Amino acid sequence: MITFTNSGLYCAAGDFYIDPWKPVTRAVITHAHSDHARFGSRYYLCEHATVPLLKIRLGQDINVQGISYYESIYFNGVKVSLHPAGHIIGSAQIRIEKDGEVWVVSGDYKLENDGLSAPFEPVKCHTFITESTFGLPIYRWAPQDQLFAGIGQWIDDNRQLAKASVLLAYSLGKAQRVMQHLQHKTEKFLVHGAIANTQEALVQSGWKLPPIEHITPETPKSAFPNSIIIAPPSADVSWMKKFSPYALGICSGWMTVRGNMRRQNADAGFALSDHADWPGLLSAVKATGAQKVYVTHGFSSVFARYLNEQGIPAEEVVTAYGEEENGNIVNN
Amino acid sequence: MQQFAKLVQVISNSTKTNEKLSALSEYFATAPARDKTWVLALFTGRRPKRTVNTTQLKNWCIQETGLPEWLFDESYHTVGDLGETIALLLPPPTDRKAAPLHYWMEQLLQLDKADETTKEKFIKSAWSSLDESERFVFNKLITGGFRIGVSQKMMVNALAKTWDIPPATLSHMIIGNWDPREATIEDLLHLHTTGADASRPYPFYLAYPLETPPEELGPPEEWQAEWKWDGIRGQIIKREGQLFVWSRGEELITEKFPEYQPLATALPDGVVLDGEILTYSNNTPLPFQTLQTRIGRKTITRKQLQEAPVAFLAYDLLEWEAADIRDYPLSQRRALLEALVQQVRQPMLQLSPVISFTEWPQLAALREEARAHVSEGVMLKKLSAPYQVGRKRGDWWKWKIDPFTVDAVMLYAQKGHGRRSNLYTDYTFAVRDGDNLVPFAKAYSGLTDKEIAEVDSWIKRHSLEKFGPVRTVEPVQVFEIAFEGIAASNRHKSGIALRFPRIARWRKDKPVSEINTLDDLKRLLEMHRG
Ligand SMILES: [Zn+2]
Ligand SMILES: [Zn+2]
After folding, report:
1. Sign of the CA dihedral with A296 first, then A297, A298, and A301 last
2. CA B274 from chain center: how many Å?
3. With CB atoms 3.0 to 4.6 Å apart as the test, which of A177, B60, B198, B305 could cross-link to B239 if both were Cys?
């Protein structure tokens, strides 16, 4: 029902693409991260909450239709519906049904309820196309309460030394999650422009988010000591200079491996991710009951091989997704 | 263990010396007494004997997790560190136990004579009682090597800060042959009364590379020049009728070099010599490869003693008539040294000769002949300077000759370890041999972080094949490879082995058609032999 083409995942029966990486006529979008939602298509379809996010990324004039989770829409007799993926606000798994056969494209997902995005729900299907960003058994997240307690402790330690705490988190998704869970630590967060823009779009569509202040060249130096500053991973060290003294913490699943934290010259790393960890991927795949699994971006060959050994037929598929967690494509 | 795990975490995350220093001195002020001695031992490279090997650790981890071996290997390859991989893979602890560092260390050492089943039981129960960060340090204690950026100098400074002892005195106190199970930190720091350990060496004084023209050092007559030898830096100690030989890695290696034994009687008591351990025959040093045949071996054969006899080329005298004379000027220490070597008259004890020169350009010309002397260049030492501790700028410089270079093409790439475990940083290079490309060297270092990122992304886009962790890449990227020495080798496909190969430059300007050939390398080999 879905073929893997040079432009992306294609449903010929319904003549639409899912998260295409080249311009097409009809694009169904799982979520607004830049590697999944790309510029240039004629019509976009996504979950309501994704609409304003797509517009700030791709332009206000794009042709986009929003639908609700669970609502069905038909393309040429192919039934399409969106289901919560728990990855970021508006993120969806895409369910496609024709003649009783069901496929689900996961997009990016995580199993833990982050308090902002609609929590992940497994969807029964015959064929499941899953991400595998963290598809290695070394990736096993601690519960978020424990992670945020650790971040809170780190902020307290920094405050002992009158330092600002700079946390790097993706401007869409991770940043809001971090602020949501740390709002008891500060009256307002100081944020980078990319995060201020995302916040503005979300607030305009009715989201209640903790108060922020956009850092500009006019922000006085006196604002920084003891503050919590949120910036995207692409933020440059020279931009942070004026916060001195500060400590730099990175919130990313990649921080599981000690060397990655050192490589980025951070003072602290917190393995906080909006993707499923290894146990999460396994339980998600099993919960779909799928007889066939395609594995996209991440440790795809590893995860596919492991699923096969577990008796679940799986294949690796090459896509153009998966740059966002590495920060190679800027999410602003 | 928790406190130690925390210390390791703070130190390895921090990029700032003063933060590391204060974490260490806080640790020394608050940790259990016997833990302190262990930390001092571990962070100054006194690795306890390994009682469990890495294959055992890997197999037990596979059993505990139920993962297939290939998946363990994939994980290891991504993490780049065995101890860390295991710590991450194991299920959460089921039986938390709070025991101090020395408890675990002593338990580990007791495993020495234990059978495999006892070892397995102990390690698995330890794993189930430690959390991830404690397990990580526990595994590192077994596999050895905390490379977390604590230098000897930093340890000395932290101890000096905690106990208020001058660093120079302190660094002499903590080196030598002591066992963390017996010595307490108070003993070591002479907060005790018994006599000092007779084998204890002095900390080595190390030279900085000279990167400016020598003219900037001032008048040539203030400097002593010597050849820079390519051997093992060592100290020979004669005290209380006994002879001790130490390497710069602070390893006691007396047994490895029986040739030096006559010095046990020939040298007077209370003498410490600094110099180079070299293979040496007919008054000339032999290439470093011959010394390598002597290192790594437990027992020395008669054949080795004949083929690769060692001598000690002395260049400094640190203790004389049982007195520490490191604060004498070099000119005075040298005079005493020359008199001593002459008086001893043993063939295995030679003076490292002084190169006489009156003008800097003259020395520069002599330096060009270094390879003919089987030397790596020239050492410059200030005649009025004392013998200092560690690497200090100003009085000792090494002025190495330029390395050999060849242009070669990248053939294979492999991911790095540790901090570069996500990047392709280890490359294999080839030279041309007719229509073929022959791999001849592996190199890891020499590129900037930015270049590494660029090469990495190129590799990811231009891989031809994948064999496990190794990728074959299109042979188009040309690099200039520098190295210090070349020797024939029948273990390498190219028939050639290089010493210290590294990347000098990325030659984006050069096409593959212009790289060097295997014949060029063979010619270099011939020249170097002659
Ligand atoms: Zn995403
Ligand atoms: Zn993705």
Report:
1. positive
2. 18
3. B198
Residue type, B344: V
Interface membership of B47 toward A (CB under 8 Å): no
Is residue B330 domain-shared with residue B246, that is, in the same domain? Answer: yes
Range of the domain at A63: 3-138+274-331
Q: Do B80 and A259 touch (CB under 8 A)?
A: yes
Count of domains for chain A: 2
Together in a domain, A19 and A123: yes
Total domains in the fold of chain B:
3
Provide ipTM, 2 decimals. Answer: 0.93
Our CA-based measurement puts residue A271 at a distance from the nearest CA of chain B, in whole angstroms, of 12
Question: pLDDT tens digit string along B85-125?
Answer: 999 999 999 888 778 888 888 888 888 888 999 999 999 99
pLDDT tens, residue order, chain A (332 aa) = 999 998 999 999 999 999 999 999 999 999 999 889 999 999 999 999 999 999 988 999 999 999 999 999 999 999 999 999 999 999 999 999 999 999 999 999 999 999 999 999 999 999 999 999 999 999 999 999 999 999 999 999 999 888 999 999 999 999 999 999 999 999 999 999 999 999 999 999 999 999 999 999 999 999 999 999 999 998 888 899 999 999 999 999 999 998 887 777 788 999 999 999 999 999 999 999 999 999 998 899 999 999 999 999 999 988 777 654 444 332 22
Q: Where a domain ends, among B383, B400, B417?
A: B400
Outline where A7-112 has alpha helix (H). 50-58
Of A219, A247, A270, the last residue of a domain is A270
Q: How many CB atoms lie within 10 A of CB A204?
A: 9
Judgement on whether residues A248 and A287 belong to the same structural domain of the protein: no
Torsion of CA A37, A38, A42, A48, to 10 degrees: 20
User: What is the distance between the alpha carbons of residues A188 and B411, in angstroms, rounded to a whole number?
Assistant: 53
CA–CA distance, B299 with B451 (Å, rounded to integer) = 45
Q: Is residue B194 part of a domain?
A: no
| Co-location of A221 and A158 in the same domain | yes
Can you tell me which residue has the tokens 């002499």?
A: B172
User: Which of B88, B94, B95, B81 has its CA nearest to residue B67?
Assistant: B88
Range of the domain at B136: 2-143
Q: Are residues A259 and A177 in the same domain?
A: yes
Report chain A residues whose CB lies below 8 A from the CB of B22: none
Per-residue tokens: A47: 């979950």
